[in-house]
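non-specific serine/threonine protein kinase structure dump, as promised
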Amino acid sequence: CTRGSRQRKDGGLYHLGRTLGRGHFAVVKLARHVNTGQLVAVKMIDKTKLDVMVEKVIQRLVQHPNVVHLYEVVNTPTTLYLIMELAEGGDLYDYILRHEGGVAEDTAKRHFAQIVRAVAYCHQLHVVHRDLKPENVVFFPQQGVVKLTDFGFSNLFKPGTMLATSCGSLAYSAPEILLGEEYDAPAVGEKWISFSLFKNLGVLKTV
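structure tokens r here:
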């Protein structure tokens, strides 16, 4: 996906637009399929700075109604392009800013339940996300759902085996990760983060 367009392996073509987000190793841009007009999000990952094979494999593995769908992957020597469905409603971080006084408990419960289902499904596949935060929960108003995105820090785990890699976002890290200890990712890290994601940010008025 160059400044203008990018040829797909199947003959399709995307035209890149404005930047939707930017991280240490990746840029996410709005793109439009030239033939169909479909809007998508294209995550452009710098392969020279990050090993992206795990994210590529996991993103293809995880297929769930509450996980952002990966349409295809375009691989070049220096950049990996992940072409994904576009979240028209923005992310949970902006949603929180728009609802500083909190939202109705039923609404918060519905959003929370959808993310829990996505995380539980990942764990069934022995996939741990390791970066649950408001910016990685996105809204699809037309579908009436929220979805989990950005598997850049995700990994496969073996049940009963502890992980030691310290990763993710500091503000949402479990105590074990902050202390540099080994941790059971699905039992400790994800549960701690998914709970603090909603409670500590004040999404639930009554908690």
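DSSP finds five helices and ten strands in the chain.
lmk if u need the other ones
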